[in-house]
Amino acid sequence: EKGTYPHYMLKEIDEQPFVLRRIIANYQDENGKLAVSSEIVNAVKEADRLYIVACGTSYNAGLVGKSLLENISKKPTEVHISSEFVYNTPILSEKPLFIFISQSGETADSRAVLVKIKEMGYPSIAITNVKGATLYRETDYQMLLHAGPEIAVASTKAYTAQIAVLSILACTIEDDCSFDMLNELSRAASVMEGLCDNKELYENLAKEYLIESRNCFYIGRHVDYYTCLEAALKLKEISYIQAEGFAAGELKHGTIALIEDNTPVVAIITQEKINLNTRSNIKEVKARGAAVIAISMRRLSAETDQIIIDDVHEKLTPLVSAIPAQLLAYYAALYRDCDIDKPRNLAKSVTVE
Ligand code: F6R
């Protein structure tokens, strides 16, 4: 139930730190170490390449998952949109393993891929929130999200849960994982809590920058680019503001032509090694009139309105940078009088192809 919350979406955003702690608790062995079943570890180790297949927000989580799997466990990973995969099937490696990411576990586009790869004889894992859902039943292995029921159509806590479960998978399949994932995830949960407590800031920024605007751009590099894709999807689907996420380095190759006076641009900067590059992109869009909000781990110049994120491990920043983006979308939709939990034309589980 919503309890005192005006919308399920807001409640589900606030639940994210608890969900993350629940995931940590559910993926621990008797010695308190992060663990997944040995069948899954073996299946991943035997595979020469992982193919993540998903739609929408789950696809965006898959992009972050690829970065985690490749960087932490050195496992080559591709990410595919389910509806494209069926007829635009990539050339597969010798020993592929498929990972289906789906909150509902019922998405028809993803199921169509599962049917196809099963015919080809390939193994599969489902990462889903709903035990016993179609994808859960029809795959060889399963990992649960433990996010609890997600009622709002716009996915929030399932998205960060997907990233958390993928990060646990990445560190448990790597024999000499130097990453203290358990500690780092716990720290991320505390940082999430701090971000959720800062609602007045997002509300004010949404009012000032977004509610009157026709469009909005998110820019970022590396994993921040993936967060930009998800941030833009969230804003589009619930506030109906046309929003796009761009790789910040691509601006000069075309997109910057869209920037006019007062065009809102949200820059996400969590990666130290490329922070100067994205900061110079902020200067470029500001010089063309953009109204910039930065979501970043460092304080930028005083003239830029900013949402500061406390330190988390650089590989896990997508877990926390999603939260300000979700809340900006929420408040933009609220002040535009949109039907936040049930946006027009959308269904919670998409059972048609
Ligand atoms: C966006 C959203 C959708 C779903 C997509 C896949 O907020 O909810 O983009 O992520 O329809 O759904 P699942 O994860 O249930 O397969």
UniProtKB/TrEMBL annotation:
One of its GO terms (biological process) is carbohydrate metabolic process. Residues 40-179, 205-343 form the SIS domain. It catalyses: D-fructose 6-phosphate + L-glutamine = D-glucosamine 6-phosphate + L-glutamate. The active site is at 348 (for fru-6p isomerization activity). GO terms for cellular component: cytosol. It is an enzyme of class 2 (transferase). GO terms for molecular function: carbohydrate derivative binding; glutamine-fructose-6-phosphate transaminase (isomerizing) activity. Catalyzes the first step in hexosamine metabolism, converting fructose-6P into glucosamine-6P using glutamine as a nitrogen source. This is Glutamine--fructose-6-phosphate aminotransferase [isomerizing]. The chain holds residues 244 to 596 of 596 of the full protein.
